[in-house]
Amino acid sequence: MKVNFVLFVIMAGFATFSLLKSGGSSWTQLLAIFIFAPVSVLGGLFWIKRIKK
């Protein structure tokens, strides 16, 4: 899970930085912050539950 949280922070951090610095459309940054980063943590939880079975 540590790797998933690190990935979450990196993706959300870079997306936030890009969102603040961009002047145009920001859909990809918002998707990265609110969809892709949390899904990486959910993927880690899914992997742990799958291994325990």
- Radius of gyration computed on alpha carbons: 13 Å
Question: In percent, how much strand structure appears in the residues?
Answer: under 5%
Total strands: the figure is: 0
Q: Classify the secondary structure makeup into a structural class.
A: mainly alpha
Average pLDDT taken over every residue: 93
How many helices does DSSP assign? 2
Helix content, binned percent: over 70%
Whole-Å distance between the termini?
17 Å
Order of helices and strands: HH
Give the overall shape, derived from the CA principal axes.
Answer: elongated
Return residue spans where pLDDT drops below 50 for at least 5 consecutive residues: none
Largest sheet report: none
Describe the structure.
The chain is mainly α and 53 residues long. The chain contains two helices and no strands. It has helices at 2-21, 27-52. The protein is elongated. It starts with a helix and ends with a helix.
